[in-house]
Amino acid sequence: MRTQLYIDGKWAEPVDGGSIEVINPATEEAFATLAIGNEKDADLAVKAARRAFDKDGWPQTTGKQRAVYLRRIATLIRERLEDIAKLEVLDNGKPLPEARWDIGDAAGCFDYYADLAEQLDDSNNQELAVSDDRFRCKVRREPLGVVGAIIPWNYPLLMSAWKVAPALAAGCTVVLKPAEITSLTAVELAAIAQQAELPAGVLNIVTGSGSRAGQAIITHPQVDKLAFTGSGRIGSHIMAEAAKDIKRVSLELGGKSPMVIFEDADIEAAVEWIMFGIFWNQGQVCSATSRVLVQRPIYDKLLERLAAETRKITIGNGMDEGVLLGPLVSRAQHETVQAAVERAREEGATVLVGGGRPASFDKGYYFEPTVITDMSLDSTVWNEEIFGPVVCVRPFDTEEEAVEVANDSRFGLAAAVMTKDQPRADRVSNALRAGIVWVNCSQPTFTEAPWGGYKQSGLGRELGKWGLENYLEIKQVTSFVSSDPWGWYIK
Ligand code: NAI
Ligand code: MG
């Protein structure tokens, strides 16, 4: 398999002919060749998106018309769900049942924004009462232009959907750059867009590196908005670049999301939600449950159960039946996670379970599910995002202390609280400084609900109606409707 770029409704070789091998993280073997575009390709893609926006009439289509394309895309994704899910496993390493869930959810995202596109027709052009009745004011929401979407490698197709679906629903045109280590399902999305007869230039996909294709998109003067998911470092860089010509920007960055477990919580349920929160997708999740706070009376019992269940997890190739933990996405990510665990050891923490490559694998970027305890509050392992299957567990005594420790972070993406006491659940969820709070669960994500972070976890919200607003400008149209003259200069 050898991919191409998708620009202006056509498949194209990169201008300078670049390519890289695509590695299966479970086997470390190359199984495909990915086209690598650079500045020249990014420029062609932006120009196509610009023309589709300015000249070809995509922003002037009705929401109902755009919904037809979005629903076609959703249907085509569902028809090919099994093949796309398998491709995601080969590329990213995640277990196949997780990949099936991702792809189904990506299809659902296109359907959801099809509905919102239709609703936009009805809710637009609303009259607004103003303080002078000689004027009539209406408010329109209009597509904001050409979107540069830059996405990471942890949920390749799903993150494409989270950006492309609302952007197209709004009437924007898009240049999408997937992460270079997991671009294959984005290329499939291009094939689906073509099959859905999406007009040329409305969706363009440039595979390539962040430093060249990515950098060219985020600095391109004809791009109006940047939508990014990825690391805080690149998020900050993108915001700085966007500042130069006041591009709109939305950022979904990482986290170090706490879970606070009170002594009255169901211990078995808490263990299940911790494991789901930190081992799903090998912990390569922006909202991963990476800091667990347990009230002291149940600390030992919970830790013992967590350790026992963690040791039982089946590790293996994501294609194999019954596997719950696949390899990490890349050699680089494996090195990063290993280094974080070594650093924790140096800082005096206890690695209670796991901590390295499982002994039974000599190939593949496998990393054991890992439980760390006894770390100090100022340690790196407690404060920095690891983005791997590594959970830190600490005891606490009072509710006040738990909230303070949970909030003592530069991140604020997600948080969770486990308790049977409803008033306490309400108090704590109100006190947690995070964009998403889960009560007696962790990680359930709904297309209808706002997704995004406080503090350094990001800017703006994706999903739900908030996700659509990301791609709309607001215009007031004010008319003079009086038969009396204005009468300021000419009486
Ligand atoms: P990254 O932030 O470097 O990459 C994300 C995307 O940005 C990729 O498509 C990349 O090509 C692109 N990019 C990089 N430099 C760019 C530039 N100058 N201009 C435009 N685009 C650029 O993330 P990376 O290095 O893959 O992962 C590093 C860490 O980031 C992870 O260990 C994790 O902590 C965090 N991360 C967070 C994610 C989240 O969901 N919030 C997802 C992936 C990674
Ligand atoms: Mg790969």
Which helices and strands appear, and what pairs or packs with what?
Blueprint: E1 5-7, E2 10-12, E3 18-24, E4 29-36, H1 39-54, H2 63-79, H3 81-92, H4 96-123, E5 126-128, E6 135-143, E7 146-150, H5 156-170, E8 173-177, H6 184-195, E9 203-205, H7 210-218, E10 225-229, H8 232-244, E11 248-252, E12 257-261, H9 267-279, E13 289-295, H10 296-311, H11 331-346, E14 350-353, E15 370-373, H12 380-383, E16 390-396, H13 399-407, E17 411-412, E18 414-418, H14 422-431, E19 436-439, E20 454-455, E21 458-459, H15 464-469, E22 472-480
Parallel strand pairs: 7-8, 7-10, 8-9, 10-11, 12-13, 12-18, 13-16, 15-16, 18-19
Antiparallel strand pairs: 1-2, 3-4, 5-6, 6-22, 11-21, 14-15, 17-20
Helix pairs in contact: 1-7, 2-4, 2-5, 2-6, 3-4, 4-5, 9-10
Bound molecules: 1,4-dihydronicotinamide adenine dinucleotide and magnesium ion (MG).
1,4-dihydronicotinamide adenine dinucleotide (NAI) binds next to helix 7 and helix 8.
Describe this structure in words.
The protein has helices at 39-54, 63-79, 81-92, 96-123, 156-170, 184-195, 210-218, 232-244, 267-279, 296-311, 331-346, 380-383, 399-407, 422-431, 464-469, and strands at residues 5-7, 10-12, 18-24, 29-36, 126-128, 135-143, 146-150, 173-177, 203-205, 225-229, 248-252, 257-261, 289-295, 350-353, 370-373, 390-396, 411-412, 414-418, 436-439, 454-455, 458-459, 472-480. By secondary structure, it is an alpha/beta fold. The strands form six sheets. The protein has a seven-stranded mixed beta sheet, with helices on both faces. The chain has a six-stranded mixed beta sheet with strand order 9-8-7-10-11-21, sandwiched between helices. A three-stranded antiparallel beta sheet has the order 5-6-22, with no helix packed on it. 52% of the residues are buried. The mean pLDDT is 98. Bound molecules: 1,4-dihydronicotinamide adenine dinucleotide and magnesium ion. 1,4-dihydronicotinamide adenine dinucleotide binds next to helix 7 and helix 8.
